[in-house]
Amino acid sequence: MTRYLIKRLMQGIPLLFIISVVLFALMMSMGDPVATMGGRRVTRAADYERLKRQLGLDKPIYTQYLYWLVGNTWTRIDLDGDGVAEAPGTRLGILRGDFGTSLVNRKPVMQVISERIPNTLILMLTGELIVILGALLVGVYSALRQYSLLDHVVTALSFIGYSMPIFFIALLLMTVFAVLFKRWGLPYLPTVGMFDPQVGKTFGQVVYHMVLPVISMSVVSLASYSRYIRSTMLDVLNQDYIRTARSKGLPRRSVIFIHALKNASLPIATIVGLDLPFLLGGAVITERIFAWPGMGRLFLDHVSRADTPVVMGILMLVAVAVIVFQIITDVVYAWLDPRIRYD
Amino acid sequence: MSKKPVLYTVFALLVVASLVLSGCGGGITTPIVSGNTPQASQQPEPVQASQQPEPEKKVATLIFPQEFDNLAPLYSSMWFVWTTWQMFDHWAWEFDENNEPFPRLVTEIPSVDNSGVSQDGRIITMHLRDDLKWSDNVPMTADDFIFTWEMAVSPQNTVATTYPYDMIESVEAPDPQTVVVTFSEPFAPWLANLWHGILPAHILRPVYEAEGTIDNAEWLKSPTVGSGPYNFVKWESGSYARFVRNENYWGTPAKIDEIFIRFVPDDASQVAALKAGDADLGTFISFSDVPTLQDAGLDIVIEPNGYNEFMFFLVNEEKGHPALLDVRVRRAIALAIDRDGINRDLFYGLTKTPTSFWDALPYYNDPLLQPYPFDPKEAKRLLDEAGWVDSNGNGIRDKDGVELEISHATTIREARQDVQAVMQQELADVGIKLNVNAVDDTLYFASYADNGPAARGEFDIQEWSDGPLFPDPDIYYWLCDQIPTDENPTGENWFYICDEELDQLIRLQSTQVDPVERRDTISRINQLFYEKVYIIGLWQDPDVYAVGSRLQNAKFSGVTMFFNIAEWDLVP
Amino acid sequence: MESTTSQIASLSPDDLETPPLNLSQLAWRRFRRHRPAIIGLVVLTLLVLYALAGSLVFSEKYANFNDTSLRLRAPSAEHPFGTDSIGRDVLARTIYGGQISLLIGLTAVVVETFLGILVGALAGYYGGVVDSILMRITEAMLNIPEIFLLIVMAKYFGGKIPELDVFGRTFSGSVVVIVLIIGVTSWMYLARIVRAQFLSLKENEFVLAARATGTRNIEIIFRHILPNSVAPIVVSATLGVANAILAEAYISFLGLGVQPPTATWGNMLDGANNYLESAPWLWFFPGLLILLTVLSINFLGDGLRDALDPHGRTV
What we know:
The complex is a heterotrimer of chains A (about 350), B (about 575) and C (about 325).
Chain A: H1 2-28, H2 45-54, H3 61-70, E1 76-77, E2 87-88, H4 109-144, H5 149-163, H6 166-183, H7 203-237, H8 240-247, H9 252-275, H10 284-289, H11 295-304, H12 308-336
Antiparallel strand pairs in A: 1-2
Helix pairs in contact in A: 1-12, 4-5, 4-7, 4-12, 5-7, 6-7, 7-9, 9-12, 11-12
Chain B: H1 3-24, E1 28-29, E2 59-64, H2 79-88, E3 93-95, E4 101-103, E5 123-127, H3 142-153, E6 168-175, E7 178-183, H4 190-193, H5 201-211, H6 218-221, E8 230-236, E9 240-245, E10 258-263, H7 267-275, E11 281-282, H8 290-295, E12 299-303, E13 308-313, H9 327-336, H10 339-345, H11 376-385, E14 398-399, E15 402-403, E16 405-411, H12 414-429, E17 433-439, H13 441-444, E18 461-466, H14 500-509, H15 515-532, E19 535-540, E20 543-547, E21 551-552, E22 569-570
Chain C: H1 23-33, H2 35-57, H3 60-64, H4 90-126, H5 128-142, H6 146-157, E1 164-166, E2 169-171, H7 174-201, H8 205-212, H9 217-228, H10 230-253, H11 265-271, H12 281-308
Antiparallel strand pairs in C: 1-2
Helix pairs in contact in C: 1-12, 2-4, 2-12, 4-5, 4-7, 4-10, 4-12, 5-7, 6-7, 7-10, 8-9, 10-11, 10-12, 11-12
């Protein structure tokens, strides 16, 4: 097992490298962060030249990638534009833990990202929890009552659920629970941000603001997971060992929950495990609609300003998380299913 | 069997961990430097009932649809950053709601009459007020001004712009209350461009001496020491920023106790919050939202800021479409677009067709020119006269085998793209095919060196919102030596127009310190623009604010937007 | 009634109810039984008809015709779906927008199927180093969330392709861009499935036989193995259309998709963003159409999966 782990980790490294190269190449051609630094008008020529030089954007793309990767403390840079490089570089590069500074607000990238990670995690983990519990409930129930009216209704709703674009659901929810409820004088839900700044970031405020975004995000996943659970449950329920258990006279409940569910939940573990790291990306669209201060919105804001360090930072974090979680999932999967063995 | 509960426990731990993380992490909490502001050190919650009944605190909420990059003077040109400066860091002089300058940190505005400005226009002498102090009780002196200039021109600082500080030869302080600025050459636009915020030397100079740059100074990210009526307290990234009244303010104290600025990126959400009374001020309101806001009882304030939306023609033999070399074709295009109709229908008549580039500077916009009217018949006649007729029956005019197909480009924004579609149809009606493009703004405005399409002259008509260097009438785009080439990639004349007469006039006005002479020159430029149809004004692009019913005395300037924020008041 | 050479008593023709069914007939039978799939097929056909035949009713000129004095009118007899922010008829725009959205859905799937089969077949058949490299690339692409990739690539390619004139319609070059980026960000799942298929099928006897007779590798891949893996590919492609239409809607909602004045259902939803309360017909109709299309494709895909691939080889 340890050898397998090490092998997987080693395989992850070239993977990360490829990802970083491809993404960096894309980012570099994505627009000019200095072009819009003039505020409402085009940046003046003299400032343009100077800013490009100071931010290191006048170097060719492979040099910029190199500096991003290993920093520039080992070389000299020309800060005052006289063509002579005499000032020592100050960047350490991502391999030494320096994610760089944002081109937009000059803050260290790690600080920018870490301010937003908790907000995203709260939203996504809660959503994931609701999705899993909900999907289990719905999936198991409709598997047990296969072909009943309830099953058909639930199936139809599930299909509708994952056929709708997320923003459509979000807008519908906003219209009903915020706009219409307020018009009818009912207690209504907030639609903007994570908390009311005058009250502060209290638990109650966050929960209150979390309701609509979480529901919007969960509907789609809940619908598709519940179908998946339903079909795996059905597969499992038709297995011989279930029939054996039943004929042995075991109570129905223990048959379902102990034997059937345990085996049906293996694929769920895989899916959850693979989904978790993508949570870091945040639900880009949901965060934008509800102005939730998370990683998704951070990504959108900085991509539109062509802020390479921050965008690369987010993407690399997500990529690392995905690789790590894939390994964790494989390990957990092997642990859960004794039939699986890795070299 | 024992494995599932473990999974669930792990999961639950993750959820708990993230909730805990969110409680601790996130946001920049800064200790307040000034010791005399008891309100600031409390939790931001309404005061609980104590022994003596305290007066209800006045807390205002403003909405910004875009979050600021940073708050430091010199480091950003973003509108939202400039706007916030008046709260905590004054300019030497500021501009009121009519965009007239008034002295703030100085005793009077320097001019030739009071010997503040030398006869040749090169030396500006400023007398500072003697009661100026920073919020930590350190007096503000001429030294702070000298330091600001030094930081602006230091190559170690990645400031947003060095203009106009790089044109200054020296800044001296013969005594702590006097600042003498000497320009290398007479510089007419100094009033509009100098001293946009002062850096506190006593805080930043040590940082500069230690690190060689102030880029990473703590003060840049949380400017807790300032010279304005409010003190910065906290900025929670992505959510809000909080300011409290500066108890050490050298001027009249502000009336409102606390101000929150909330970041709401979505127009629809901003409107909803304003209608619900969750906020007292909305900024950057789009015209389409004005009727709903007015119905909900909010006051809409429109403040000219020098910006107007223009279409710029590319007139160049090598680069552009041959048709556009003929002034009659350009005039026909101006006549074929119903600009008044666009302003009336799409913008609810809240804005007008600009008559000139200097629309928001009435002094320089004299005599007033009338924009070309909507006259498709005359447009067709002009095109016929210029020799562009539809000889092959495809609905598009042509001449010498070249079709009259011109390309138009602007950035991605709903209002602009809507107008593009309208113009496309109106021009098709007179036989001109308009190929429309909408490009993301960081791509559109990329430089010549980065193959920016506009800079490379790939579009026959470019459109964006622009104006002179408001409140100064200075312009520079159309200078012949600003045409970008491989040797001169930073040229800003993206219209590739080299018109000798225009070039001369533009150069002349930037040296004329006498306003009357300058006005005459600018009138001549304006007339030239009109006759040669180098630009077509589409709509005025002022700042639009939505003021809630609680907020009183709020006035706005086109330059120093929140100039009278100390006088704003809240009535329940 | 033929005599057989077998000694076993054979069934007389009267005892045989129907002739034995071949695979595709069996599949069709299973498909027919799946009621939602049939409904899905019907609805989808109607929607396609709506988009195509509708252009016979309304000309493109009419769909693009704007009159700013008629902006934001509620649905009426003259404009059954109302008018948009510059006075264009929403009904006609949903028709022409539907053409683009469906076109994007189909062509994106063509791109992604092509890439998926190419990568999966080569990786599965040749194995070894080729497999390693291709799988690393696949994993690398999979490791980046799709929406991030879409946003980054949309910005990268934005504005680089000019307007096109195809099938008598002029539309903005961003359509090609969207098709490419959706295709390039979704081929990975199919590649994995195809690879799994090839891994298991290439040890089969018919492949050994083909090799023994000296058939070239390319022929083995495309003429022998691939036809046997058609089932999961068809299911994946069908569901891929739904995913592509949704992806287009998402990216247009963020403002990075097809640019107006070319209409798609996605960018009509984006344009409705500022008029949620004041003009709900702007988002309701395109949203409903997207929902119905994706829903019916999902039903159809579900039915196809039951019919062609009952052992669940697809994800």
